[in-house]
Each structure stands twice: as structure tokens, then as C-alpha cells.
Amino acid sequence: MIPMRDGVKLSTDLYFPEGAGEKLPVIMVRTPYNKNADEDTPCDFVGQDYVVAVQDVRGNFESAGDYIVSAADTSDGYDTVEWLASQSWSTGK
Q1: What is the largest CA-CA distance in the chain?
Q2: Do β-strands 51-56 and 26-31 pair in parallel, antiparallel, or remain unpaired?
Q3: E-strand spans in the chain?
């Protein structure tokens, strides 16, 4: 669960490649369609030494908050990128 600036937490699955370096770039995928529906997407990128973050958007599936089409996409996307870039395993890219 990644906290947003207003305290709402968004459900995010993180996928890490095996045997990769300590710091890796991150690919972020945000979806209103259930992050658990497509198990293949993360695998396509994890095998290429990326961390993959797949997130249910606000108010959908495992994420908290109220869903209003595109209402919080900009701020939630920004907050998620900032959180991912600040993690010890991230290169910030």
C-alpha cells in the first residue's frame, strides 16, 4: 500500500528480478481494470532487470478511496513515482 498525499493508500504489487543489482529502474503500471487480472505484464519486464510496480487506481479493487474517472490520476501518479524513486532499491529512474 503506497500512501498518497491525502492519506489514501493505493494497492501496489512490486515485482523484483532475481539476481539483479541492488538498485534498479522501475516501470510503473497503473490500472482501473484490476492489477491481478494480467499476470504476464510484470514478467515481461522483470526478466530485463527492472522492478515492476503494478497499481490499482484510487477506489478500484484493492485500493482505497473513491473512484472518479481521472480525478486523482495526476496527483496519485506523481505521488507514486516519488515514492518509488525514493526507495533504497530504486535508481530513481
Answers
A1: 40
A2: parallel
A3: 2-3, 9-10, 12-15, 26-31, 51-56
pTM over 0.85: yes
Pairwise CA distance, residues 65 & 88, whole Å: 27
Residues 6+ apart with CB under 8 A from 11: 1, 35, 55, 56, 61, 62, 63
Is residue 87 exposed (0-12), middle (13-18) or buried (19+ Cβ within 10 Å)?
Answer: middle
Mapping DSSP to helix (H, G, I), strand (E, B) and coil, where does residue 87 land? coil
63-83 residue pLDDT tens: 999 999 889 999 999 999 999
All structural domains of the chain = 2-85 (3.40.50.1820)
